[in-house]
C-alpha cells in the first residue's frame, strides 16, 4: 500500500466513525420533566440548565412549543394566566434567555412535532 492509499483508508474509517457517532447522537434522548426529547434538539448552551426546570414549567413550555397562547395554556393546565406568566419568566431566568420570544423559539425547537 502506498502512503496515499493508507491516508485514504484512514480518512474513510474516520468518516465512518463520525457518521456512526452522529446516528447514535440523534437516537439519544434526554428527560425534560415528564418528556423525552431527542438530544439533537437541545442546544448545547441549554443542556445543563434545562434540567433545572420544574415539571410545571416544562408543561407550560410544551404547550408554548405547540403554539398555544397563555390563556389556552392556563385553561389546559387548570392554572391562572398570571401563573403561566410567572412560569415563563422563571424559565427565561433559569435558561438565561432575553425574553419570551427566545423561550418561544426554544420551546418550538424542543416540542414542535417534526411531522
UniProtKB/TrEMBL annotation:
Transmembrane segments: none annotated. PROSITE patterns: HTH_LUXR_1 (PS00622), HTH_LUXR_2 (PS50043). It comes from Sphingomonas populi. This is LuxR family transcriptional regulator. GO terms for molecular function: DNA binding. It comes from the Bacteria. PANTHER family: DNA-BINDING TRANSCRIPTIONAL ACTIVATOR DEVR_DOSR. Residues 46-111 form the HTH luxR-type domain.
